[in-house]
Amino acid sequence: MSPRVYELRKSSCLHFVRKSRVEIAFAFKCACLVNFILVGSATCTLCQNTAVPELKSLYESHQWFALRDESKRAPLPSFYHGAVDAAFNDLPSAQKYLEAVITSSPHSSDAYEAHELLATLYFRNGLYREALAHLEFMMAEKPSAEDVRNMLPLFASFSGGGDQDLVTKRVSSITMQQGTEGFYLPFAINGKEGAYAFDTGANFSVMSDSEAARLGLNVQTVETHVDDSSGGKVGLRVAVAKDFEIGGLHLKNVAFAVLPDSQEPFKELPVGNRGLIGIPVLLAMKSFQWEPSGTFTLGQPTKHRNIASSNLCFDESFPVTQAWFQGKPLELTVDTGAQRTVLGPPFAKEFTSLVKNSGANEKHTLTGVAGSSSYDSVLLPSLTMNVGGHDVTLSPAHVLTKESSDTSSWAAGNLGIDLLNQAHSIAFDFGAMTMKLQ
């Protein structure tokens, strides 16, 4: 496995990313929801006309923690309040503020963007019918929007199986299966067992053709396409697991994207492991933690939500954490499916002297199902940062140095399992929106 390109082209919206041991950064770029937490999001009219310049700047540069902190000084305008709530996955509050924006001016640019935010929020929480309703409004408002048109079939296919529904959730511990590419979580779909990797970098769950057949799932072709990190286009099919159990978590209507076994990342994986568990299922757990020794625990009671002290939020469907390096905050996307952490151009820009004086120039190659892409990079011997309250060391450190349409303009890097597993235990709490390493 290898790190994904943690932010892709500016037309992107829903990224699914997966890695394999042949340097895979397999990324879906389904062009549709170009919203406030996406690459190159459109500037909303409300931001231009009614918000102070400082808020607008934070909003456009994806500084969600800094934008949250502004609310401590003075109440935020409704749009920004809703945007922060969406980033910190506070669905009821985000609904309240963003729907107020829509109600006050239903056909405005502000309302259109509020629909985008809500569609993304609903989608990552498995509320596919609600997400589709907002996407359909966007299509009605802008019939020529090719991105939205391309994504409608996917949303319709997911919603056709119904929203992901929680049946039961109880505290349970699972012994993870050790595989050639890391740990896998055992599960059952319609009573048939398997074990997939858990990947916070996957916007939805995924499996191969043979897995869908083995598990007896009905696969539907979707009239849409997604783009991988090398610029190629990949067709997409969907299957919905009506009954899904993992430990003490029992869900109905879990949607999976289905890909050929011949494509990465599946062709080198054993039968029964050719899939991954994406963010909608992980969010349904509410909390989970694992120990690198092999134990995974889910369903523990979440802590009291105090957004002012949260160190975890979402950018689109990707978790983002605030880490620290040399006394400065860093926003890192969190990707449990990435074997190695990679830093990006914003890190190189912020720490120019370190990169220039201590690094060696290199080319870093990432490969997708349609080919490979090479990126200008600097290799640093070692650096230590604080992540989730725990010091971790990246050695060596790959730093992408050149901004392009395929690199992040704001994230300092993509945090992989290599740094997370330096702790004794790693805990995600999506109720309190915290990530803690101990």
Q: How do you describe this structure in short?
A:
This protein is α+β, with helices and mostly antiparallel strands. Helices cover 27% and strands 34% of the residues.
Search tags:
13 helices; Serine Threonine Protein Phosphatase 5, Tetratricopeptide repeat; 11-stranded mixed sheet; Cathepsin D, subunit A, domain 1; disordered N terminus; 27% helix
Plain-language structure description:
The two termini are 25 Å apart. Helix 7 (128-141) runs antiparallel to helix 8. A hairpin with a 2-residue loop joins strand 6 (182-189) and strand 7. The chain folds into 3 domains: 45-160, Alpha Horseshoe (Serine Threonine Protein Phosphatase 5, Tetratricopeptide repeat), CATH 1.25.40.10; 165-298, Acid Proteases (Cathepsin D, subunit A, domain 1, Beta Barrel), CATH 2.40.70.10; 303-437, Acid Proteases (Cathepsin D, subunit A, domain 1), CATH 2.40.70. The chain contains 13 helices and 28 strands. Helices cover 27% and strands 34% of the residues. Strands 3, 5, 6, 7, 8, 9, 10, 11, 12, 13 and 14 form an 11-stranded mixed β-sheet that branches. The chain is α+β, with helices and mostly antiparallel strands and 438 residues long.
